Amino acid sequence: MPTITLKPGREKSVRNRHPWLFSGAIQHIDRDAPDGEIVEIHSDAGQWLARGYLNRRSQIQVRLLTWDAEQAIDEAFWRSRLQQAIAGRAALAADPQTNAYRLVHAESDGLPGLVVDRYSDWLVVQCLTLGIEQVKPLLTRLLVELCQPAGIVERSDVEVRQKEGLRPMMGMLHDAAPAGPVEIMEHGRRFLVDLLAGQKTGFYLDQRENRRRVASYCPGGRVLNAFSYSGGFAVYALAAGAQHVVNLDSSLEALELGERNLALNGFDPDAQAEGVAGDVFQVLRDWRTASQRFDVIILDPPKFAHNQQQIERAARAYKDINLLAMQLLQPGGVLATFSCSGLVSADLFQKIIFGASVDARREAQVIERLSQGPDHPVLLNFPEGEYLKGLVCRVW
Ligand code: SAH
Hints:
Layout: E1 3-6, H1 12-15, E2 20-22, E3 26-29, E4 38-42, E5 48-54, E6 60-66, H2 75-87, H3 90-94, E7 100-105, E8 114-119, E9 122-127, H4 130-134, H5 136-147, E10 151-156, E11 169-174, E12 182-186, E13 189-193, H6 208-215, E14 222-226, H7 232-239, E15 244-249, H8 252-264, E16 273-277, H9 280-289, E17 294-299, H10 311-328, E18 329-339, H11 346-360, E19 364-371, E20 389-395
Helix pairs in contact: 2-5, 6-7, 9-10, 10-11
The protein binds S-adenosyl-L-homocysteine.
């Protein structure tokens, strides 16, 4: 098996079972080691440390798979990792009220580069790395064996694949495509999900628990669901007794799906809700001028920081929308604000929201701290897996 030798003194993160090996830690790569294939990691002193898959094109040159010298990376390995991931979702699988959740959360499930989401009888797969791309047919076969899905959709149409030298890909890995949007259930609420053309893998599964938490502040209130996508938070808010909900998003397709989702849950999309197409930054400004007021505002923007260089600009953007949202809240109103930028830490995010409250001249109290759902676990060896953070604030 081809070998990679680390630089002296660079084995600490490998010993701590961090799954990423960066080029800076590597002294030597066997020339005949093919990209995408399994390599052995040795210390400078020649001691075997770990085994993983290689890609010279990526800054993360190796994603480590095992620290057990006896464990071969064969079909039995992939099957057991998938089985472990599935076992970790047993409580969700047994919940008759929910049939959509993340089945495999990549590094955090010991399967670097692989995401699998379950949507009712369907699976959606994302292959983010060359190493996973190479074993895609095997993984597909194993997922069919273990989950017996109606079909498996591939949604590897993501930018990160460029870093691996891979082109975006999407289509069917197994069986025929669903005839249209697939209906899923989450805590007994029903949603239509477009597996082939929706954002991400179709739905923001990571917000499931937060939708329920945030809904508990909505009874009787006028709610603004900003960056609404297909209106997940809106359905929960109305189900909890909100008086009225506005879905605000720049995507017309998302708003249209949002209306269908309201109707699917027995709500009147015209009387109880409104869909507004526009740029949140602009619309909130306009509404401030027009003295619009809400009792609850949800801010769930897309990822603003994709790399270190973008953190400062992202921080300004987060501050901007949060400042505006606070000014649009009735005294005593609730702001549920999220960031899914992994590079913006929970600590930095709280500081940004603090800055927004000072500039908005409003006092804000943190009443809840939110995170990604339990089907998006954070492996302690891999704190990078924690990306979603939310603050629920009462704003005076
Ligand atoms: N809260 C949603 C997920 C939001 S994802 C849920 O629970 O499902 C982010 C959404 O923001 C996407 O639907 C995207 O279309 C929208 N978006 C991105 N930039 C925007 C902008 N500047 N103004 C309005 N919507 C925007």
